[in-house]
Amino acid sequence: MLDKLAHSFEKGGKHEKLYPLYEAADTFLYTPPDVAKRDSHVRDALDLKRMMTTVVIALLPCVLFAMYNTGLQAHLMIAKGAAPLDNWQTALYQMFGLGFDPASILACFLHGAIYFLPVYAITMAIGGNCEAIFSVVRKHEINEGFLVTGLLFPLTLPPTIPLWQVALGIAFGVVIGKEVFGGTGMNVLNPALTARAFLFFAYPAQISGDQPWVAANLTALPQGVSGATALARAAVDPGVVMNQTGGWTATWWDSFLGFIPGSMGETSTLACLIGAAILILTRVGSWRTMLGVVLGTLAMSSLFNAIGSQTNAMFNLPFEWHVVLGGWAFGMVFMATDPVSSAFTDIGKLIYGFGIGVLVVLVRVVNPAYPEGMMLAILFMNMFAPLIDHFFVQANIKEARSSWRSIVPATPSASPHWSASSAGSASPAPRSRWPTARPRTRSSTSRSRSSRSPA
């Protein structure tokens, strides 16, 4: 069917201006029939479409667990005395008659899906339209990169975020974070993190993490029970997290598996590690960047643990808790490894990741207002990634030049080109940068002229 409509969208057709939309649908459903007519310069089975599809597959464990854990946290709080939220999501869920049983996997999954899917739908609708408008105006194809951005952004949001804030955030991330730089492959900052940073600075009450991130009304809860994120609780007293005191009942394994309140897709470190394995095995994500983040976090957290503090509780939070709280694992696997906004040299990836690991602990410990630092650390290192690559690229160029000079020494014996001087001595002739054309002789010119004369 699409082949029959192709002539209407091609050059000179009735809908020529809408060709990017047709091309996006055609390449999404079918493999492009274009083949190289000459020897290709780069031959690789992994193109942009397959790369983005791999990232989406790697995100599926986080998506599935996000829907389950969102409903689970709401049902746990309701079982402790909280009331269901008075909104259309609760009304829609109650139509299925499943109740608020935290032991029911189906009930938890369905309740969480009712909160996650509208956020995802708004993200794809608003962000996709922004992407399509810029593609039509600029007359270039719609790339598959937005499929990843449109899935990453909802996973970084709390379940109770207003949908109009979702629309504002993704519009800002696509337009300001990507399109103003030229579109896919040209952006300096990660578009999904740019969108979340906009919401963080514009609406900090809903995004900062110190407010309840559970889809339930917690005003009726007994004292000591909170729906704030684990990292926000740890910023007040790490003993609440590490010793399970003060009403907090989550263990390290609960935090590792993800059974804690937080952003919908960031709570499960295990789901993120499954995605990391997929990205590393398919060579889509850089293991060097991930290793750098781990080493940077280990070094900085160990330094703060050694220093200690009587006034700042976060100084005492050990490394094994840093990696399971907040968005550390999600940011390391899916945000820091963005091939466009991160470093591309091998050593540069290690330094880039190490800087993220250092900064995330620094922001968590030193910043008194915002205990989470992964978003700010990645955005900060995004701006330094081109500078890091510049130094290592220049170093590689200098090393290559010195190696070439050592292989080809500048001596007369090494040059096969000689010219005889008037004294009869031989001296090397200067090598030309361009191949010298063979001179045309008079005989050849006359032959060419005679060949054009009539018989």
Structure description:
A hairpin with a 5-residue loop joins strand 1 and strand 2. 58% of the residues lie in helices and 1% in strands. It is globular and about 75 Å long. It has 19 helices and two strands. Strands 1-2 form a two-stranded antiparallel ribbon. The chain has one domain.
Characterize this entry briefly:
The chain is mostly helical. The protein has helices at residues 2-9, 19-29, 48-79, 88-94, 105-138, 145-155, 163-175, 191-202, 204-207, 230-236, 238-242, 252-257, 269-281, 287-307, 319-322, 328-335, 346-366, 374-407, 442-452, and strands spanning 418-420, 426-428.
Could you say how many structural domains there are in total? 1
Sheet/helix structural class: mainly alpha
- Note the run of SSEs as H and E: HHHHHHHHHHHHHHHHHHEEH
Determine the fraction of residues in helical runs and give it as a percent range: 55-70%
**First CA to last CA: what distance?**
60 Å
Count of alpha/pi helices: 19
Shape: globular
- Number of beta strands: 2
Rg, nearest Å? 30 Å
Give the low-pLDDT segments.
242-248, 413-427, 429-455
